[in-house]
Amino acid sequence: MASTSAPTIPSLKQSFLTTQTTLLAQPLAPSRSWQAANDASDEPLPERAVDDALFALNHSIQQHCHRLYAPQANRNIAEQINKTYTEDAQRRLGPGFDDAGEGALGREMDLTDHDTIEALPETWISEKDINDYPMEAKLYADAVRRLSELDEQRKQLRDQVARLNRLKSVVQPLQTGESGAGIQENLLTRNGPVEKELERMRFLLARVGGRVNALPDGGGSDAASQAVPVTSSDSLGLARKRRIDQFLADAKVFPS
């Protein structure tokens, strides 16, 4: 899964400035109240004159915004804002902040990156700050713990997506159409055609077995029973065969 880099302060500021300058460059139009007042006036301004004046004004606004709020100018302003924030933060933190040594948290750290989250210390690095600011130190520890939990959840979701993608590639050959809906009908699936057909066969076999068991053992007119003597060893098999033959020869079941 492709990861996107976190936005920087200059990019956020430049995006904000671009949005605001775009709003300033929008063409102007008379409001409904002004139009109603102009229409109700004894000497209303001609619509053609109003349109010409608005066209000239909007053209001047567009040229002004293009010259004054160029993308390069917005970028320079965003970098100046970022520099001002950085200098103010350094002034507030004191001159020894940049020399905090190994383990210090840099302002450029990407807290959405897995390796960065793994490298974060569980507690604040300065014992003095922990004693002086216990509430802030607790907030930091809670934030790191929560960030680690979210990172683990993201890892699980990525693994799940990878498994689903592998499963999708496995069932890809089973598609029945270009849309990818359904699988081959000859496969045995729950509530599928094969299962329904097997269920019908089971009921049919039960009905046939019931009819066969209900047939009599045969009388003197049965040629098959007279021709085949029944012994104690094969009586069960011959009896079942005789009943099946009688069932198949029954004109009521299979009329000719």
From TrEMBL:
It comes from the Eukaryota. Keywords: Coiled coil. Signal peptide: none annotated. The lineage of its organism: Eukaryota, Fungi, Dikarya, Ascomycota, Pezizomycotina. InterPro entries: Sim4_Fta4. Pfam families: FTA4 (PF13093). GO terms for cellular component: Mis6-Sim4 complex. Residues 140-170 form a coiled coil. This is Kinetochore protein fta4. It comes from Cylindrodendrum hubeiense.
